[in-house]
Amino acid sequence: MIQLYIREDCPFCKKVDKAAQEMGLRPDKDYQLINAAPLTPGRDVVLKVGGKAMVPFMIDGDTTMYESDDIIAYLKSTV
Ligand SMILES: N[C@@H](CCC(=O)N[C@@H](CS)C(=O)NCC(=O)O)C(=O)O
Fold first, then answer.
1. What are 49-70's pLDDT values in tens digits?
2. Which of 4, 10, 18, 64 is most buried, by the most CB atoms less than 10 A from its CB?
3. CB 4 within 8 A of CB 71
4. Measuring CA to CA, which residue among 59, 62, 57, 56 is closest to residue 15?
5. Could you tell which of 6, 12, 39, 40 is best to mutate to test the pocket of ligand 1, judged by most ligand atoms within 8 Å of the CB?
6. Strand 31-35 and strand 2-6: pairing?
7. Protein residue with least CA distance to atom 14, ligand 1
8. Edge-to-edge, what's the strand order for the sheet holding 2-6?
9. 2-78 sits in which CATH class?
10. pTM for the whole structure
């Protein structure tokens, strides 16, 4: 399942989540939202896999991506 690392207070994260839902994707069914606020396990994954302390961050198998617009474009083209 696509993993989307987010922070509750992040407008770019909200934008991606909203776009995903508008595409018909369902949280917990089609993609997983994971809290990546500082000092969370999700933050550790973002840093380890992506190398940058930035959200939103997406993992879909071997594909990883920062940048909300890129993630939305990826979802549109692949899902
Ligand atoms: N251009 C990026 C901006 C992302 C961004 O600025 N994210 C902020 C949160 S809203 C961030 O990662 N801040 C640093 C942090 O959370 O450690 C995008 O569109 O995704």
1. 999 999 999 999 999 999 999 9
2. 4
3. yes
4. 56
5. 12
6. parallel
7. 54
8. 31-35, 2-6, 57-60, 63-66
9. alpha beta
10. 0.96
